Here is the input.
Amino acid sequence: MWQYFMPTKVYFGEKCIERGTEAFKSLGKRALILTGRRSSKENGSLDDVTRALSQIGIEWVLFDDVEENPTFALVRNILSEYQDGSFDFVIGLGGGSPMDTAKAIAVLLKNPALKVEDLYDASRYSEALPICAIPTTAGTGSEVTQYSVLTDDAGFKRGFSHPVLTFPKIAFLDARYTLNLSEALTRSTGLDALCHAVEGFLSRRATVLSDLYAKESIKLIAENLPRVLRNPNDLHARENMLLASCLAGMVISQTSTTIAHALGYPLTTFKGIRHGEATAAFLDVVVEQASIEVPDKVEFVRSVLGDVAKFLESVGLNVKVPINDEELMLWTSKAKNAPHLQWTRGNFTEELIRYLYERVKLH
Ligand code: NAP
Ligand code: FE
Here is the structure.
């Protein structure tokens, strides 16, 4: 038996906000827009959103200080500022960071008695404000997932989700917003999408339908990631990457991510390596480990990407960070106990995990 549930209405294509403006009406009359400091002003997305809202008489308030890898503290700050704002819905505009922050804020504005820690127990809330997600990176797929990844007070990344409420109601995907992503951001976000597609494809929770999306996503990324790295202005290739990251988001909405994500988290929060690269640093071994259990699937991945480690190297992946013994021990034990291992194929022993961290260690 398998199920499929992905309740987000997706608008995809050039000028989709302008063309789909009416859709905002179903969300309410007053919006809180969450975005990062700069990029949404530079790529035209913020103007498109505010123009659309104003045109149909929706009031909006802007918070434009969402940082990369949003923390519990950021969520608390936003809440204290906007708790009494009487918002009907929340818009997350930008990369995964603003979209994930929007999910947390949508729940907490509707449930003022809850603290950010309470987000991790979905049985504590049964309502949330509706969410609109507008990605400006082609990476996380957060616009079509129920997940939000926040960094806790101890510095660890932790994902929460609600099976229904944290899915965006509406997503607008316009690849023009991704045209001015730097090479480094194009690489790291594209690799994140690839990890979602491959991890989801090889996950023990994969379904017939998620596999269709995963295969298409892997093919699109294999072809288009090298292209957008060579020619950042190739709008068609950018569109294909945005489609691939959205499909990969739909995959993990069914399967969740696996051990590569769990292994990568400390490299991001403690060593500043961007999420996609931190995760992709372990992807070749996720594929290798799956080969005993699902050889056909591994064969498919290799037929598209070639040798996985070589493909990653060819797009410029190279992660090396200083790691001390204490970190090695702590991160290994965290990963060993990560829930992600339940869905990950193969045998990720403590020795293997330690070896994987040794492999990215700068000697
Ligand atoms: P991000 O953290 O949202 O943004 C990274 C940087 O990219 C920021 O400096 C941002 O600048 C810039 N940026 C965004 N769009 C841009 C554009 N169009 N042009 C130029 N610069 C742009 O990046 P992300 O990789 O999309 O998201 C990573 C976060 O998502 C992590 O916290 C990760 O854990 C999480 N994640 C969530 C899921 C999920 O399912 N929910 C899945 C994977 C990862 P500004 O600040 O100026 O906007
Ligand atoms: Fe990810």
